[in-house]
Design brief:
There is one protein chain. By secondary structure, the chain is α/β, with parallel strands linked by helices. The chain has 2 domains: about 1-120 and about 270-325, Quinone Oxidoreductase, Chain A, domain 1 (Alpha-Beta Complex), CATH 3.90.180.10; about 135-260, Rossmann fold (3-Layer(aba) Sandwich), CATH 3.40.50.720. The chain has 10 helices and 16 strands. Strand 13 (about 230-235), helix 7 and strand 14 form a beta-alpha-beta unit. Bound molecules: NADP nicotinamide-adenine-dinucleotide phosphate. NADP nicotinamide-adenine-dinucleotide phosphate binds next to helix 1, helix 2 and helix 3.
Length: about 325
């Protein structure tokens, strides 16, 4: 079968290749899935560079998220041959067939195609865990979402708007502002450059933001400490800027806000009942048409490099979905 293998880690994808390998044997508690669609997440890119917190031994098959059809399943797994499933593991999704632990899969809600199903899971569970599970987002609250053109950023905007919150989205790329605005109609889209607190203050009528959701880090995080309201929450989601910010602990004390560390996947693994409840809530919102993932492009897996490079070069507004069977 075809699989995208990371044979050695490198900053320029030179150690990553689409190759023919034997179909994986099904692991003891695993389900074997014919992959119909698999979406690219930032950790996939970081893993090709050896820069993600999880560092699998090389060679490994890339891809943490998929949607597909069950071709083999243990009786006690809750899945049967022919079931449409979504989910994944930390690796293995960018291949024609994947062996995935049953606990990492759920049924695709009726009426959702494979490509949006592959784009729904990781981004929306990250956004849901950060905004709703850990920060108890309420209607009417102000949410500042950074990295707004990314998979996770757009999911956070979509979810927050669907919950009746007010959203200020930020991007570092002027040309993306109109696209972000047209997708989910946030209350404002601003440039996350330099000092943006004054804009946040003006837009919120002086209130500042109850929740700041930050996948970017670095300078954007530093400025965010000036944008969060008293008793608000600043959620550390990731570091796409490449810099992990330092914060003096007197700042959250004096301003009375909390810094919340988010690890959505680990949260669901440690608290499986909460993970299942989060997945069910996302499926419900999706079934009711209240959320819908934004897909920038769907590519055959043979065009994997285009997708990875577009993410690395910050060209995307929404998710990249690969179709291994095409
Ligand atoms: N904590 C968790 O549980 C969890 C789970 C999943 C993902 N994550 C993290 O969330 C982050 C986003 O993941 P994703 O899959 O949404 O990635 P993505 O689709 O590539 O989006 C990342 C966004 O970050 C911004 N960005 C990229 N490079 C940047 C740079 N050099 N400087 C400033 N901003 C930059 C871009 O937004 P603009 O161009 O609009 O500025 C980009 O669209 C990653 O750090 C990932 O590791 C965390």
């Amino acid at each position: 079968m075809k699989a995208l293998r990371v044979e050695s880690v490198s900053d320029d994808l030179s150690g990553t290749r689409l190759v023919e390998i034997p179909q994986p044997a099904r692991g003891a508690d695993d389900v074997l899935v014919q992959v119909k669609a698999a979406s690219l997440n930032y950790p996939d890119l970081l893993m090709t560079r050896g820069k993600y917190q999880f560092k699998p031994d090389v060679p490994f098959t890339s891809g943490l998220e998929l949607a597909g059809e069950v071709i083999e399943a243990p009786a006690e797994s809750g899945f049967a041959v022919g079931d449409r499933v979504m989910g994944g593991n930390k690796t293995g999704a960018f291949a024609e067939i994947a062996s995935i632990p049953a606990r990492g899969l759920s049924h695709i809600p009726d009426g959702i195609d494979y490509a949006p199903a592959a784009a729904l899971g990781a981004a929306y569970s990250t956004a849901f865990t950060g905004l709703i599970e850990l920060c108890d987002l309420q209607p009417g609250q102000w949410v500042l979402v950074h990295g707004a053109s990314g998979g996770v950023g757009l999911a956070a905007i979509d979810l927050a708007k669907s919950m009746g919150a007010r959203v200020i989205a930020t991007t570092g790329v002027e040309a993306k502002r109109a696209q972000i605005q047209s997708l989910y109609k946030p209350d404002a889209v601003i440039l996350a450059e330099g000092r943006f607190r004054e804009q946040v203050q003006e837009i919120t009528g002086g209130a500042l933001c109850d929740i700041v959701f930050d996948p970017v880090g670095g300078d954007v995080f530093d400025e965010s400490t000036r944008c969060v309201a008293f008793a608000g929450k600043l959620v550390v989601v990731g570091f796409t800027s490449g810099r992990i910010a330092d914060v003096a602990t007197n700042i959250p004390l004096i301003k009375g806000f909390s810094i919340v560390g988010l690890r959505a996947g680990e949260y669901a693994r440690r608290f499986p009942e909460r993970g299942a409840a989060i997945n069910a809530a996302i499926a419900d919102l999706s079934n009711n048409g209240r959320i819908k993932p934004a897909i920038d492009r769907v590519l055959p897996l043979s065009a994997w490099r285009e997708g990875f490079e577009a993410m690395a070069n910050r060209e995307l507004v929404g998710k990249v979905v690969f179709e291994p069977g095409k």
